[in-house]
Amino acid sequence: MNESILITGANAGLGKEAARQLALKKETKKVILFCRNQGKAEAAKKDLEEQTGKKIFEIIIGDVADANSVRKAVEKIREPIDAVILNAGGMVGKTAAQVTSSGMNQLAATNILGNVVLVEELIKSDKLRKTVLFVSAEAVPGVKSLGMKPVAMKTSSEDEFAGVLDGSYFGNKFDVTQAYGYVKYAGTMWTLAMARKYPDIKFVVMSPGNTKGTGASDNLPPAMRFMLKYIMMPIVFPLMGGMVHSLEVGVKRFVDGISDERYESGVFYASKEGKLSGEVVDQSTFYTDLKNISFQDNADKAIHRFIK
What we know:
This protein has 308 residues and is α/β, with parallel strands linked by helices. The protein has helices at residues 13-23, 38-52, 67-75, 106-124, 158-166, 176-197, 222-240, 247-259, 293-304, and strands at residues 4-8, 30-35, 57-61, 81-86, 128-135, 202-206, 267-271, 280-282.
């Protein structure tokens, strides 16, 4: 049982819904909302209390794109946490390609940097008991029926992963929709490496699938945002079957991932091959790079080039 859970990016979308669902579980005694903005965090806390009738929400302020901000936030955590959901991330928007002080581009820093630092600092200070869930994406294995190509790095070497993280891998054409899958691949492989490093902690990777109501399309270019929000989501995906589900269903994957023993450490779970919703399966059964220990370690090493 998980009595205390920390969720990054918890003031809206997937993170906020995860906080709501977890608060409704009998065993949950504390949900920590790890957010960047105090005002938005307070508003989310108030709304969650009203929705659930529970006064179990706490706020920790930290910016996942800033390693030092996360380290300071961890210092404020006094008691060990049972589970962590690394939800903060997304496609970021116009600033995705900008290089941060860490050397990572904004897309990688937001999806990976602070999430990694958070977990490693919690472990170092003996404040993490049971489970870590990294939120990945169906963009990693791809979806052939939609023409969504799987991530296909040439060697998955340490240098190649580092190029994804600083943006140089993409040359002068930084397409955030493409880069997003590669960044999530790097974060996924780090998580799988951590599962081997820390066998006493469960490290699970989970995609929420193609989920309505997350606000994910807000950061896309205008034409793509319009197409996804008003044509693909409400019309095309429902007609195709197995291609979209509600926010509640998408987030239940996270809740199950940290609490259900069926979900094993060191596995990336997402929709069946060719689907974006429905039952989740081990992605390594058809995307075999996930099984490569050297690739996992290369991602881990590359990420730590940017953590000082």
